[in-house]
Amino acid sequence: MESAKKSPILDYDPLFYKQRTDVEPEFGKAYEPVLPTESEIRYLGNRNRRCFYYVMGLEVCKYEVLSKHGSTFLPCKDVMDAMWRCFTDNHYGKSIEDAPEYTKPYKDLLYDCFFTKHIGMDFCWPYFSGMVRTIYRRPDSKLSRWY
């Protein structure tokens, strides 16, 4: 039996939880939720509004491929790449494949969710936004912080 991929969201992902060091837990490790900053929320909210065109385009492309009984989503790659460029202000490559290595767990889960399981982007969104949020929270991030 092949092992299932673990979601970083369910595995105490540092994007959502951080380990507490100020307490000695009785059982295992103690975690507390990570609250996003106001600028991160504004950035993602503004990007969601600005880039929604590409999200919808991805859904339409996927529907077109499935309605033609296609098994390859290669025609949708351009739309996915355009969405990536929009959300990252063209700072992290022309393709989602150019994403930094530290976003790879989210990218793998996004591909598995959207292209393998044939689930809509609304359910796969945490993986894409996880890629963007991981980049945004890094000190060397090139994403704008003025929102």
Question: Can you offer a commentary on this structure?
Answer:
The protein has 147 residues and is mostly helical. It has a domain at 39-137. It has 4 helices and 2 strands, in the order ββαααα. The chain has a two-stranded antiparallel ribbon with strand order 1-2. It is globular and about 55 Å long.
Mean pLDDT: 85
Strand arrangement in the largest pleated sheet: 1-2
Helix content: 40-55%
Q: Tell me the β content.
A: under 5%
- Terminal CA distance reads 47 Å
Order of helices and strands: EEHHHH
Strand elements, count: 2
As a whole number of angstroms, the C-alpha radius of gyration is: 17 Å
Number of helices: 4
Secondary-structure class: mainly alpha
Return residue spans where pLDDT drops below 50 for at least 5 consecutive residues: none
Principal-axis shape: globular
Largest sheet: 2 strands, antiparallel
Write a compact overview of the structure shown:
This protein is mainly α and 147 residues long. It has helices at residues 38-67, 77-87, 104-116, 121-137; strands at residues 17-19, 31-33. 48% of the residues lie in helices and 4% in strands.
Write the layout of secondary structure elements.
Blueprint: E1 17-19, E2 31-33, H1 38-67, H2 77-87, H3 104-116, H4 121-137
Antiparallel strand pairs: 1-2
